[in-house]
Amino acid sequence: MILPIVAYGDAVLKKKAKAIDKDYPKLDALIENMYETMYGAYGVGLAAPQIGLAIRLFIVDASPFADDEDLSEEEREQMKNFKKTFINAEILEEEGDEWAFNEGCLSIPDVREDVFRQPKIKIQYQDENFDTHVEEYDGLVARVIQHEYDHIEGVLFTDKLSSFKKRLIKGKLTNISKGKIKIDYKMRFPAMSKKR
Length: 196
Known about the structure:
Strand order of the largest sheet: 2-3-4-7-8
Structural class: alpha+beta
Low-confidence stretches: none
Largest sheet: 5 strands, antiparallel
Distance between the termini: 22 Å
CATH class: Alpha Beta
Strand content: 25-35%
CATH architecture: Alpha-Beta Complex
Number of strands: 9
C-alpha cells in the first residue's frame, strides 16, 4: 500500500525518533508499504518519519545508481544489489574528508542542493529479523545511509546548508509546506496535519 509522504514543515520530520522492538505492531506490513511508497516516488531511501512515524526505521535501495556512468565499475556493482532495512540504527563512526554531492529528498520535492558529508561510516543496526549488524560503508552508499539516518535524528538535508543557501530556497520550502507544489506521488502537507 502506497502511503502519503510527509512534506517539509511537518513537526514529525524534526523529532528524534524512538527505538522499536520486534513486537512493534504490523512491522512486516509497514516495511513492505515503505518499499512500495519509496518505489512509487522513485526514491532510493525512505525513513519512517517521512510517513509520519517517529520510529528508528529506514530503508535503502541504491540500485537506481547502478546505471550512473559517473561512478566506477566497482561502485556501480555495489549499488546494483544494495537493498537493506535499517532498524534502531546508530552511526558509530564517520571519517574522511567531507565531499559535496547534490542531494534531494522525497519530503522536499524540487529542491536539490550540494551537501557535504564524510565519505566513510560505521553503523550498527538491526535488520527486519532483529539480527544485529555492524558494517562499514563508503562513497555513495554511505551518503544515502547518512541522509536517511539524519531523518531518524530529526535532521533534514536543508539543515546542513549555509544560511545564504537557506535564504535562497526559503520561498520554495514555504510553498512545499503549504502544498503549493506539483508532484506525481501522494503527499501529506502540514496544513492537513494540524487537526491531529
